[in-house]
Design brief:
β10 and β11 form a beta hairpin. The chain has 739 residues and is an alpha+beta fold. The chain is built from 19 helices and 27 strands. The longest helix is centred in the first third of the chain and has 28 residues. The N terminus is likely disordered. The chain has a 7-stranded mixed beta sheet with strand order 10-11-8-18-15-16-17. Strands 13-21-20-19-14 form a 5-stranded mixed beta sheet, sandwiched between helices. The radius of gyration is 28 Å and the shape is globular.
C-alpha cells in the first residue's frame, strides 16, 4: 500500500510535511551509545554520546557508527543490533562512520577510540534501544494513519503492516509523521527467542567491498595536489638529528623538498619511489641518545636487578604469604621473561594530511580519531577543533593505531611543505619504529603443604606502564579546548589522578592480579621498570603475557603435586564457574582422557579477559627441537553471541596471531637498534604451519563481552605446557625455543 491510497486528510498531512522540509528525515538519537563514564569530568556535565539513525523518505536507512572497522567485524556486529530491533535486514542499512565529536566517545574510556574488545558490549543495550525506539515511533505513526491502536500494527522488513490486511507503509512513507510521535521512555526490546538476526550465521557487511576493491584503506587515499613523503629516523630508538646534508637528495628526480622535522629528516617528492630513492642519498649525523648501547641482555639484567632492589607495590594481597612460606613443606621459585613484540599489521603506517591557514584535513587508518586531532595540533599552529579527521578502513590495528605518531609526522611534513602530503612507512620502518608490546620479567614463588596442596602464591611483575606513554595525547584529547602549553601538564595530571579522575593503569598487571585460582595466600606485586623503549597496547595487552606466566606456573604446580593438569585447575576454579565450565568443555572436546597417537602431546590453559572466558587445548609434536602444533581446541564463553561466525573467526585469528608470537615473536635490541626489519627475520606463521582449529561457543544468557582479544592469552601457555609433556623441559621465556 502506498501513501496515495490513504484517505485524503492523512495523505495531505504527510505530503505537506515531506515537501515543506525538502525531503524530511527522521533522526533518532541513540541515547548513551557512547556514554562517557565520568572520568575527569564534573558531575554536572553531560557526556551522553550518541550515534544516530536516519530514515529518508526514500526508505534509506543510514546508521552512523562510532567505532572503526579493522577486520574485527564491528560494522556487522553493531549494525546487526540496530537491524534486529528496527526489523530490517542488516544488509539494507547504509553505514556512515562518525566524525570526531565528543558525543562519539567510547563510554568505557572517555575517548573516541576503538579497542579493548568492547564495541559490542558497550553498545549492546543502547543501540538496541535506539532501534526499538525508532520502531515504536514508526508503528505509532502508522497507527495514526490507519486510525487504529498501535497493537494492530506490526513492523517487519522495513514496513509497517495493518494486522489482518495487506496494507503496508514503508518506513520512508512514515518518516515525517513518526518524528512527531512521542519518544518512548522505555521501548520494549525483543526477547531472545524472537531474534531474527542476533545469534545467526550472518554474512559480514564489509566483505563485498573488500573483495571487489571498493573499500578504501588509508594507504589507498589520494588527494588532489598530493605529494609523497618518507622520513629518515634515527636507527637508535629515541635518537635525534645532529646534522644532515641533502644536496644530492635534492638533485634527485621528482624531489620537492628535504627538511628536518621533530624526529628526523623528511623527503617530499611527487611519487613515492622518488622519495625513497632520494632518501638513500641523504647524509645524516645522529645524536644517538641514551639508548645507544642498550641490548636485550642488558635490559633483562637491569630488570632482574630492579626486582631485587624494589619489591614492588602490592596490587593484590590475600592472606599471609610470609606465614605460608614459613610453614611450607616445599617452596618452588621460578623466573619468566618475555621480549618486546611488534604489531606487524598488514597495512603499514600511513596518513594523508592537508594543512591550510585555518584548517587541517586528515585521512587516516586510526583507532583513535580524537587523539589524531591532538597529534596534528601539536605540530601546527591549529587547535584540535580546526582538525577534521576522516577515518578510513584499517588493514589491521591490534592496538598499534591507538598511537598517533604516524599522523603527527604527516602533519609536521604537510605543515612545512604547504601542500597535501601522503606519508607511507616501509615494512622495515614499521618493524623498527613500532611502539612495542612491553618486554617484562617475572618472579613466581609457590608454597606447598605436606599433603601437596598449594598454600601460597607470590608473583612479582617487573614491567613498564603503558599510560606513561599513552597519556601524552590521551589527556589533551579529553580536554581539546585546553591551550597547547597545557598538554604536558594535562598528561602529568592524568598520571597523578589515576584512580580518581582517570582509571588506574592495570596494563602491566591485568590477567595476573585477577588470578582465579583458589589459593588462600596470594600476592601480586608490580615493580615499575621502563628503559625508554616506546611501548603501547598490543592485542590483549597485559593478558597476552600474564596468562603465559600464570598458566605455565600453575601447570608446573600440577606436575609438582603429581596431579593431572586439567583436574588440578578444575579443582582450584570452584569460585569461577564460567572459567571452570569452558575448561571442562575444552577438555571434553579435545578428548583429554584418551590416549594420543605416538609422538603427539597435549597442553591446556584457561584465561579470562575482557569479560570473556576461553580455554584451549593444544596438540603438538616435537621433532629435531622443532615444535609443530597440529590441533587447537578452543571453547569461548562471551555471553550472548551476536554473530557466531565472527566469534569463531576472531578466536581463529587470535590463535594464529598468538601462535606466531609464541613460536617466533621477538624484537631484540643491540646497540639501541632493533635487530629485526621485515618478515624474513620477524616471521609470521605460514599457512602450512597453521593447525586445525576447532572453536566451540558456550550458549549463554549473559550480556555480550569481548571476542577480538580473548583468544590470544591461553595459546602460548597451552603450547608451552604441551612442550613440557613432550620433552620434560619447561620453557619459561618467549618465543618458545628448544635449542
Amino acid at each position: 500500500m502506498s501513501i496515495n491510497t490513504i484517505k485524503a486528510s492523512r495523505r495531505q498531512f504527510l505530503k505537506a510535511s515531506l515537501t515543506t522540509t525538502g525531503g524530511f528525515s527522521l533522526a533518532v538519537n541513540l541515547p548513551g551509545c557512547a556514554t562517557f563514564s565520568g572520568q575527569g569530568l564534573s558531575k554536572n556535565q553531560s557526556w551522553v554520546a550518541n550515534a544516530w539513525l536516519e530514515i529518508s523518505k526514500a526508505s534509506e536507512i543510514v546508521f552512523t557508527l562510532d567505532r572503526v572497522e579493522m577486520g574485527q567485524g564491528t560494522t556487522t556486529g553493531l549494525t546487526t543490533l540496530l537491524a534486529e530491533e528496527l526489523e530490517v535486514d542488516p544488509a539494507k542499512i547504509l553505514i556512515k562512520y562518525a566524525p570526531v565529536e565528543n558525543v562519539y566517545r567510547n563510554p568505557d574510556y572517555g575517548l573516541q577510540m576503538t579497542g579493548g574488545s568492547n564495541s559490542i558490549s558497550s553498545s549492546w543495550g543502547q543501540i538496541r534501544e535506539a532501534g526499538a525506539t525508532a520502531r515504536e515511533m514508526l508503528i505509532a505513526a502508522a497507527a495514526e494513519v490507519y486510525g487504529v491502536s498501535v497493537t494492530k500494527c506490526r513492523a517487519e522488513n522495513g514496513k509497517v503492516s495493518l494486522d489482518g490486511s495487506e496494507k503496508l507503509l514503508s518506513y520512508g512513507d512514515l518518516a515525517a509523521l513518526a518524528v512527531s510521535q512521542s519518544v518512548p521512555a522505555k521501548p520494549k526490546l525483543k526477547e531472545a527467542e524472537d531474534f531474527r538476526y542476533i545469534g545467526k550465521q550472518n554474512a559480514r557487511l564489509d566483505i563485498s567491498g573488500k573483495v571487489n576493491g571498493r573499500t578504501v584503506y588509508g594507504i589507498d587515499t589520494d588527494v588532489e595536489g598530493m605529494a609523497y613523503a618518507v622520513i629518515s629516523r634515527c636507527p637508535v630508538l629515541g635518537g635525534k638529528v645532529k646534522s644532515f646534508d641533502a644536496k644530492q637528495a635534492l638533485k634527485s628526480k621528482g624531489v620537492v623538498a628535504v627538511f628536518e622535522i621533530y624526529n628526523g629528516i623528511a623527503v617530499v617528492a611527487e611519487q613515492y619511489w622518488q622519495a625513497r630513492k632520494a632518501q638513500n642519498l641523504l647524509t645524516i649525523m645522529w645524536d644517538e641518545g641514551a639508548l645507544a648501547t642498550l641490548s636485550s641482555d642488558e635490559m633483562f639484567s637491569s630488570f632482574k636487578k630492579t626486582a631485587m632492589n624494589d619489591k614492588g607495590e602490592f596490587v593484590r594481597d590475600d592472606g599471609d604469604f610470609e606465614e605460608a612460606e614459613s610453614q611450607a613443606a616445599r617452596v618452588i621459585e621460578v623466573e619468566y621473561q618475555t621480549p618486546f613484540l611488534a604489531h606487524a599489521t598488514l597495512e603499514p603506517m600511513n596518513c594523508v594530511v592537508e594543512v591550510s591557514n585555518d584548517k587541517a584535513r586528515v585521512w587516516a587508518p586510526t583507532q583513535a580519531p580524537d587523539l589524531a586531532r591532538i597529534a596534528v595540533a601539536r605540530v601546527t599552529d591549529l587547535s584540535p577543533d580546526d582538525v577534521e579527521v576522516t577515518v578510513t578502513a584499517i588493514g589491521g590495528g591490534f592496538g598499534r593505531r591507538l598511537t598517533q605518531d604516524f599522523i603527527e609526522e604527516a602533519a609536521a611534513v604537510a605543515y612545512q611543505a604547504k601542500r597535501p602530503i601522503k606519508l607511507m612507512w616501509s615494512r622495515e620502518e614499521d618493524t623498527q619504529h613500532d611502539w612495542y608490546r612491553p618486554a617484562s620479567y617475572h618472579k613466581l614463588k609457590a608454597t606447598l603443604s605436606d599433603a601437596g596442596s598449594v598454600t601460597g602464591w607470590d608473583h612479582q611483575i617487573v614491567a613498564p606502564k603503558l599510560f606513561d606513554w599513552f597519556i601524552r595525547d590521551a589527556a589533551p584529547a579529553q580536554y581539546p579546548w585546553a591551550p597547547k602549553f597545557m598538554y604536558g601538564t594535562l598528561g602529568s595530571m592524568g598520571l597523578a589522578m589515576q584512580g580518581i579522575a582517570v582509571p588506574n593503569d592495570e596494563t602491566a598487571i591485568e590477567g595476573a592480579v585477577s588470578n582465579p585460582y583458589n589459593i588462600a595466600n596470594l600476592n601480586v606485586r608490580h615493580t615499575h621498570a621502563d628503559i625508554g623503549v616506546p611501548v603501547s597496547f598490543w592485542r590483549s595487552v597485559g593478558h597476552s603475557q600474564n596468562a603465559f606466566y600464570v598458566e605455565s606456573f600453575i601447570d608446573e604446580l600440577a606436575h609438582e603435586t603429581t596431579k593431572d593438569p586439567y583436574l588440578f585447575r578444575h579443582g582450584l576454579l570452584e569460585k569461577h564457574p564460567r572459567l571452570q565450565k569452558v575448561l571442562a568443555l575444552a577438555a571434553a572436546h579435545a578428548n583429554w582422557d584418551t590416549a594420543l597417537p605416538e609422538g603427539r602431546y597435549r597442553g591446556i590453559a584457561v584465561h579470562g579477559s575482557f569479560r570473556s572466558y576461553v580455554a584451549q587445548v593444544v596438540e603438538l609434536s616435537v621433532e629435531d627441537n622443532t615444535i609443530k602444533v597440529h590441533r587447537v581446541v578452543c571453547v569461548v564463553d562471551c555471553g550472548i553471541v551476536v554473530n557466531p561466525d565472527i566469534v569463531k573467526a576472531q578466536m581463529e585469528g587470535g590463535i594464529i596471531f598468538a601462535l606466531t608470537a609464541a613460536l617466533y615473536g621477538e624484537i631484540s635490541l643491540k646497540n639501541g637498534r632493533v635487530e629485526q626489519s621485515n618478515f624474513d627475520d620477524y616471521a609470521l606463521l605460514r599457512m602450512d604451519e597453521t593447525p586445525t582449529i576447532e572453536v566451540h561457543i558456550v550458549d549463554s544468557n549473559e550480556n555480550p563481552s569481548g571476542v577480538g582479544e580473548p583468544g590470544v592469552p591461553p595459546l602460548a601457555p597451552a603450547v608451552a605446557n604441551a612442550v613440557f609433556s613432550a620433552t620434560g623441559k619447561r620453557l619459561r621465556s618467549l618465543p618458545l625455543r628448544l635449542a
